[in-house]
From TrEMBL:
Domain of life per record: Bacteria
Pfam families linked to this entry: DUF7793
Name assigned to this protein: DUF7793 domain-containing protein
Record-annotated DUF7793 domain positions: 13-124
InterPro entries membership: DUF7793
Gene3D superfamilies in the record: yp_829618.1 like domains
Length: 125
């Protein structure tokens, strides 16, 4: 088993070139229990080291308010910066709203282009 890879029913996580990649699985619904599991698995993988995070949210179909609140607070533990990559206009508008209302505690930006998302994270490596 690779030590820099983790997988659960909601997402896959791996560390490559000092960046933690985080990809939600297709058609996933995130509630508070799912959010807590996702954050716990990510923190375990990081082994107390903070990383910039590339987060592919394109698989998420729905999140509830408790999950969003939890991710906005505890989701920033051990993160230097976060790139969120989405594609649907609905997920993009929800995410923009989330970024405005919840104000994550680390630099967080929303992208539709993966390379732009990686460029944003490079200054935090």
């Amino acid at each position: 088993m690779m030590h820099n890879y983790q997988d659960n029913e909601f997402a896959q996580f791996w560390i490559h070139n000092e960046i933690l990649f985080f990809k939600y699985k297709p058609n996933v619904v995130i509630n508070l229990i799912a959010a807590q599991r996702i954050v716990a698995d990510r923190i375990q993988l990081q082994n107390e080291i903070a990383y910039p995070i590339f987060c592919d949210i394109r698989g998420i179909v729905e999140t509830d308010k408790a999950a969003r609140d939890y991710l906005a607070q505890s989701g920033s533990i051990l993160t230097k910066a976060v790139s969120l990559v989405g594609h649907h206009s609905i997920s993009l508008s929800l995410t923009s709203f989330y970024l405005t209302i919840c104000k994550p505690s680390v630099p967080t930006k929303l992208f539709t282009d993966e390379s732009a998302a990686l460029v944003f994270l490079e200054e935090y490596v």
